[in-house]
């Protein structure tokens, strides 16, 4: 009987020791990534507001600086605009009207949990005098897809906008 108890205790001890490495592996797992979406969304809202100020001030270089190198624009009634030269040409035309007044407001910004992509939706208003001297007022909406760059800065990779009429 004693040998049976000793055998049972030894078997239990061996089973317990065999299970220990499995318990240890669980504690080696990487800690969960911290949710930084609120911080990223605030950074994008700030960048968007600065971008709008640059466009309203007709600061072409600063306006263009918010785009990633491979970004594309989708302007209304026009082909897709890709590449820095094409974006420059498009923005030069957008900023050309005299007495241009421009503003936008982000209505939603949502960052991916991964922290490297986000989108922004919003509305814009603009007024200007056309080539014939007539006042023009337009309202519209936009979508911008943002991508975090290697240095941590957010840049637009997709910029879609069109008027309501």
Oligomer: single chain
How does the helix and strand content classify structurally?
Answer: alpha+beta
Total strand segments: 6
What Rg, in angstroms, do the CA atoms define?
28 Å
Number of domains in the coordinates? 1
Enumerate the spans where pLDDT stays under 50 for 5 or more consecutive residues. 10-18
Strand content: 35-45%
CATH architecture: Roll
**Largest beta sheet, briefly?**
6 strands, mixed
CATH class value: Alpha Beta
Structure in words:
There is one protein chain. A hairpin with a 6-residue loop joins strand 1 (67-74) and strand 2 (81-82). 13% of the residues are buried. The protein is 38% helix and 37% strand. The radius of gyration is 28 Å and the shape is elongated. The chain has one domain: Nuclear Transport Factor 2, Chain: A (Roll). The chain has 165 residues and is α+β, with helices and mostly antiparallel strands. The protein has helices at residues 2-27, 37-56, 60-64, 84-94; strands at 67-74, 81-82, 98-111, 117-129, 135-148, 154-163. The chain has 4 helices and 6 strands. The longest helix is centred in the first third of the chain and has 26 residues, at 2-27. Strands 2-1-6-5-4-3 form a 6-stranded mixed sheet, covered by helices on one side.
